[in-house]
Amino acid sequence: WDRGGEPFFSMGxxxxxxxxxxxxxxxxxxxxxxxxxxxxxxxxxxxxxxxKEASVYDTDxxxxxxxxxxxxxxFGVKEPDCYAALRVHDARAVLFVPRxxxxxxxxxxxxxxxxWFQKAYGVHEAAHTDEIVQTLRExxxxxLLCVRGSPNRDSGLxxxxxxFDGKDxxxxxxxxxxxxxxxxxxxxxxxxxxxxxxxxxxxxxxxEAHLETMRAVQGGQREHLAEATFKYxxxxxxxxxxxxxxxxxSGRRNAILHYGHAxxxxxxxxxxxxxxxxxxxxxxxxxxxxxxxxxxxxxxFSRPQRIVYEAVWDAVLAVERVLQPGVCYKDMxxxxxxxxxxxxxxxxxxxxxxxxxxxxxxxxxxxxHGLGHQLGLDVHDVGGYPPGEFRKDDxxxxxxxxxGRKVKENMVLTVEPGFYFIDYLxxxxxxxxxxxxxxxxxxxxxxxxxxGGVRIEDDVVITSNGCRVLTCVPRTVEEIEAVMAGGxxxxxxxxxxxxxxxxxx
Amino acid sequence: WDRGGEPFFSMGxxxxxxxxxxxxxxxxxxxxxxxxxxxxxxxxxxxxxxxKEASVYDTDxxxxxxxxxxxxxxFGVKEPDCYAALRVHDARAVLFVPRxxxxxxxxxxxxxxxxWFQKAYGVHEAAHTDEIVQTLRExxxxxLLCVRGSPNRDSGLxxxxxxFDGKDxxxxxxxxxxxxxxxxxxxxxxxxxxxxxxxxxxxxxxxEAHLETMRAVQGGQREHLAEATFKYxxxxxxxxxxxxxxxxxSGRRNAILHYGHAxxxxxxxxxxxxxxxxxxxxxxxxxxxxxxxxxxxxxxFSRPQRIVYEAVWDAVLAVERVLQPGVCYKDMxxxxxxxxxxxxxxxxxxxxxxxxxxxxxxxxxxxxHGLGHQLGLDVHDVGGYPPGEFRKDDxxxxxxxxxGRKVKENMVLTVEPGFYFIDYLxxxxxxxxxxxxxxxxxxxxxxxxxxGGVRIEDDVVITSNGCRVLTCVPRTVEEIEAVMAGGxxxxxxxxxxxxxxxxxx
Lengths: 505, 505
Ligand SMILES: [Mn+2]
Ligand SMILES: [Mn+2]
Fold this sequence. Notes:
Largest sheet of chain A: 5 strands, mixed
Oligomer: homodimer
CATH class of the largest domain in chain A: Alpha Beta
Strand order of the largest sheet of chain A: 7-6-5-4-8
CATH topology of the largest domain in chain A: Creatine Amidinohydrolase
Shape of chain A: globular
Distance between the termini of chain A: 47 Å
Number of helices of chain A: 15
Largest interface: A-B, 74 and 74 residues
Number of domains of chain A: 2
Structural class of chain A: alpha+beta
Helix content of chain A: 25-40%
Bound molecules: manganese (II) ion
CATH architecture of the largest domain in chain A: Alpha-Beta Complex
Radius of gyration of chain A: 24 Å
């Protein structure tokens, strides 16, 4: 937190510098679109509540703090327990920080005055949270808009409404707050240049950390060594948090899509001949990467492992080659499914017509998740569907597809097809006369335990006429086997694949 | 999670094996004392709610799960969202686990039936959480006792009352629940043999990780390298969590007692000539170590650094030499204060009579925290004061002393004196005619910025006639300088100092 004239965020030498001006731009963009919305009155002021530090049950320890994403997007403030006001007509921004007791200095550090926060975060004004009412009056607030209490997004959960003493002295605009919610989600879903730099940075850090993890993996270890290594290597590069729980399966546990939670804490033994599936992403200034690498522990793919891996890789390429503004991601999801079915039919696992398999919904049993999702401050970022549309609305997509709209330039999203051998889903498919008829059971048993599951996940930005991949890790079988054999790998912008839609088809 | 006959917890080869029988013993001990309490009826059943997985705001990511400590103490269950019932008259234990939807298998892993949980955790019975009412009836529950909703402990916070459908069909015994709370705190505050093994284990892991961190520290780095290194090294030994936020100050930031939180994230540059103060502890099966090492970045103490360090080390030794059952920790707190005043008077910082300085409360300005606290499942563990007593009751101790009772055999506690140069507290002392008169300002300025602050923190178990130190790290100036110069250090039980009270005085 230096501030040489222009305020910025950075974790020191060799890490990325994020100018606070980025957040001012976000605020201005938001106010500009809100001024065009009839639901929003002339004297409207947005009141935001930042993330609170939360206690671990009744103890005096806290869960590791992460700033609430909307607050982070608009203000980029790392301190907990703040509020902010944003006047719609001129984007005047006021940050409110808690008033600390004298003893704060002994336990937590210097008490920074509002003027420090005003300068550090590049806002027009900073004050204490007990001055909210007075400040709102000075801002001429005729109505308040709130981000919290609005409709849910990806998760189906709801934020609490902001609360402060004297809140009832101001009128609350419910419909205007709905407009705020929709516009904020839409703005967040298209990234600006600074955000793209951050997302490239977390991808580069994640790529380096994945590489070092790949090289550290051996049979006979516990799975969590991968998690420990990734977090350590990312922290050395200034990324202190990961954007989501590390998924570090091996063998049959690759088929557990969100492995690595409290009940399955990446603690099993890694078998020497197995595949690993590592889904881990570093976070910086709130923005997360989301990268999955699948590779053989031994350094060499078995034949079944290679077949499934290359089918999934083909699905990645098929999608990346045609992605461009205007393409609907539901079609990409189906393209990936079709590619996987074709390749696995060539491999002898499936028998029959791919179109019939598509119509029967066979792929749900081998890839029950969606092809990808928006990526940003949340790992499953907002804006996967336009306002008013929800992913459960469309019965034609049975899988949990978090991104189901036409993509736009500068959206950042994941391309993450997978192919898994999930016992109960395979048993269900086999028990179904129609679906079961597509499956060659002899071939199935060659793949089932040896492969477990494969996922490949790239982070991708949509360009004006195609897309650019942000994730620079070994991807082809040859690249992976070379790196696992000790070969070099350079993470650099030059390594990232870039596509002009259609050109390579 | 193997279970060869006897269920146990372990993170694999080379890590500690914790038998689930330990938790059965805890349950039996609790029921035994409750049967003697008149507030508890004959048909009493304790109903406990385990920790819930908590979402990060409205996103679909979660805060890293940690089990609620009372639930962990009695059941040792790693899965979130459980309940349990414990019948007081015979300690019959029933564990309730959530009923999972079919899709859980694809996203989270195999659905384990109640029988699996019954065996894995060594309880008499396991059922689903929607069977609580029926099971309570089968247990003949005449009244319910709850841990939640009872008076607060160390933190001043309060747990929520457990809630489940049909709760109102059972009588709730408020006074009995108060008795449960008191007895549970008392039982938790004295450790059994298995708990001592775990606390020794987390201390050994923490010692190894501290050592590797000391060797990795250099000038010109960011402070957080220490945190990253410690967490990585502890994770490699099977400790995936730390018991509290890592405090990784350097130089003047050593004087911020709880440095390393969201607003001060261990991110400053480490100066080559400075002291570091690293307060970090590994956690295993819920139990935490709490270890602080202070050492010079350069590997050699400056004269002022050495003087303050040795004064603090003398305070540690003074306390450890006399600790034994029956000693009141308030007296130990004063003994440490007196030792520090004496040593710093010899060093010329203070002028006058130590007794007068004690009477004036001078030490509050140089060590505003208490000498130590209970340690166990919570880093500031329960039972620091006997039921009905609170630390704010006694105006004779101005500092935040979390442990203020007569210690008993097998209590585990921290001995953590410190000496800090906290700007505002020094300024307050100087502004006070009486306190200011004790301070030699010239000497003060030699120490102020060069030292910043020193803390030494040992974890100690009270034995029948003295105490044993669980923390095996380099402590004398000579030991530290030798290790920093590349010397070997063996973490082993033999290295832990053991005292018979009075023998070395
Ligand atoms: Mn993803
Ligand atoms: Mn402590």
